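Intended use. Records like the one below are meant for learning the mapping from a protein sequence to its folded structure. Do not use them to infer anything beyond what is encoded.
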Amino acid sequence: MEQPWPDDFNSSDLELGDVDEAVPANRWANTGKASVDKILDSKLEDRVQTKKSSKQLGYANVNLKSEANVCLWINRVQSFREHTLGQDPKTPPTGMDFERFLEAIVPKVIPMGHHLVPSLRWL
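Structure written out for the chain above:
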């Protein structure tokens, strides 16, 4: 397929003038303004209330198999972070931690059913 530009074309060489004029105003700047204002108005009360609520969270009307599966994966991730990555399990994991965990766990598990290898769908 032929390129529509010469081989020596470099977009960095283009002179575009004042770039600030070319950038359109943010048309979505006020989207959600009413709810954002309410969040700002109650920030101190919400900070206390959400902290209390999060400390009291627990399973409600959950299937025991679902609860066991959640605990299974929590134990796997926490063990990997603590023993493989040397991290304090009380600190929040990063996206990179999860990426590394998924790479490490796939060859170590045996999926149930007729599949011979774990798949992303299985995870």
